[in-house]
Amino acid sequence: QVQLVESGGGLVQPGGSLRLSCTVSGSIFSILTMGWYRQAPGKQRELVADIRPAGTTNYLASVKGRFTISRDAAKNTVYLQMNILEPEDTAVYYCNALSPFGSSSWGQGIQVTVSS
To answer: What is the DSSP string of the chain?
Structure first.
């Protein structure tokens, strides 16, 4: 398994932006499918976006057009750019790394709060 370190969360007003980062230890970043999940209080964890090694992306319907996932192989880092944030986006966001062998690793989670 790999180690994941997240950063970039915080408090933002509705309509604002945040960028989450997740840096992966080790040398296998290029073969990992990287994803961002979130879990709001009282709700199940849900996939927000993921990006495959070749760059194919997938988004939760409610964030399409507002969020962008990207990866930087030189920095072993995946990003989630979040624009036009809504109170409904408030949650703990988790980074996930999935290897082609089925091994899954999680970050510690980072709080995103959208409130005026």
So the answer is: ---EEEE--EEE-TT--EEEEEEE-SS-GGG-EEEEEEE-TTS--EEEEEE-TT--EEE-GGGTTTEEEEEEGGGTEEEEEE-S--GGG-EEEEEEEE-TTS-EEE---EEEEE--
